[in-house]
Amino acid sequence: MEQTTTSPDEAVITPPGSVKDKIKAQWAKMIALVSIVAIALGGLNDTLDAIDKVTDIVLSKFTDIPSQSNLEKVYIRASADVLEETFGAPVYMKTSYTGDVIRYYKDNRFIISAIVKEGYIAAYLVFPDQSFTPNTFEHAGGEALLSVPLAAQESVSELKANVSTTITYYIEANPAGTFSNLYASISGYSQFLGPLDPQSKQQLFKLAEELVLDDLSTTTIESVRQKLVPNFFGYSTLSLVTLEQAVLSQSEYRLINKEG
After folding, report:
1. For the whole model, what pTM was predicted?
2. How far is it, in rounded angstroms, from Cα 64 to Cα 61?
3. Which ranges constitute the DSSP H helices of 4-62?
4. Coil, helix or strand for 187?
5. Where are the beta strands (DSSP E) in 29-183?
6. Which residues is 115 bridged to in the sheet?
7. Local confidence band at 154 (pLDDT 50, 70, 90 cut-offs)
8. What InterPro entries does the entry give (predicted)?
């Protein structure tokens, strides 16, 4: 019999849905005996519900499928109700200098901050854990957004920076992306996971100073963007004057995660 081989380029990629199905099937087999007893006692629906619940727990524990699914439910101009339906009540709230209420929600693998206008999501930022790689296909930075320096994105329409004892960050808006005609792609770096290296922090401080003096240097901007790899992203219909206040600080991160 003639055998065929598959090259690495032709390797079959298993979609996330089939992974879930396989795990569900495995767990279904493991509790097959219990199911038979339950069915005999008239508890088929309860058994199926139990399988679904156990599957969700396993998926949440060992894969990022639930987190990816939760993130896909959030998009600009969606009803603000989606946030609480998906993540529950906000774990942290604050009011910006412009009077907007910023709500923070927590998933097992990321924190999301959102600003709501007239009942719809006007802007949101996602702060993923280091072990989580969210889908950024629609972002101006593409799928590699969180693994390459900000300089990989060619155009910047707006930027903000801050260096202080309470919060240090860089955030920029990019006019490109899948839905660039509807809203801007946002990306940046915050010290919520740890401090910057001294050289990068010095360059960021210089940029923040130039912003205050309204004397921006292209050289400084390029230097910062070449050094920083974004660790958060999002989408927005608002200016960065409002959105920069939704950037997660290290203190807020520790509070939300209840770290000492």
Report:
1. 0.78
2. 8
3. 16-30, 32-40, 44-62
4. strand
5. 92-95, 101-106, 110-117, 120-128, 158-162, 169-174
6. 102, 123
7. confident
8. ETEC_3214_dom
